[in-house]
Amino acid sequence: MSKVRFVLITGFSGAGKSWALKCFEDLGFFAMDNLPPALIPKFAELCIQSEGKINRVALVCDIRGGELFSGLFDALDILEEEGFDYEILFLEATEEILVRRFKETRRRHPLLDRGNVIEAIKEEKKLLEDIRGKADLIMDTSNLVLSELKEKNLSFL
After folding, report:
1. What is the distance between the alpha carbons of residues 39 and 72, in angstroms, rounded to a whole number?
2. What fold does the segment set 5-156 form as a domain?
3. CA of 46: how far to CAs of 40, 52, 108, in Å?
4. pLDDT tens readout for residues 110-139
5. Would you put residue 88 in left (φ > 0), alpha (ψ -120 to 50) or beta?
6. Which residues touch 125 (CB under 8 Å, ≥6 apart)?
7. How many C-beta neighbours within 10 Å does residue 105 have?
8. Tens of pLDDT along 27-76?
9. What are the CA-CA distances from residue 137 to residues 38, 43, 49, 64 (Å)?
């Protein structure tokens, strides 16, 4: 029904979601990072009301949202009930690569308060199992350089 193409980008912290979002933005998608799931249906309505001005959207929604992230399936159910189509791109990488990326960037894993980085990565994997199972495309970014990630995103389109 909807004439808006929605791509939900999610996956493991450190797997390249922000870079993937930039790639979609370069391709003409309206890009939004870290949108709370409860706002996704409202945002979809605004896109429809834009009368074609916003017709391709890429959203990153991930574990950074904390407790709000648990509402993702409810938000997706509302989209489906209202006739919106969406696709889910799930990015992942090996534990070894994720740990290395966190060390290189010196950024904290969003779940780091639950132990060390490896424990946080394992906890995140458990929390994301269900959304990973619903993904239209699962992309392992472990061995990809940034230009290859852009090419993979193009093939997703």
Report:
1. 10
2. Rossmann fold (3.40.50)
3. 10, 11, 33
4. 777 756 888 888 989 999 999 999 999 999
5. beta
6. 12
7. 9
8. 899 999 988 999 999 999 999 898 888 989 999 998 887 777 888 999 99
9. 23, 23, 29, 21
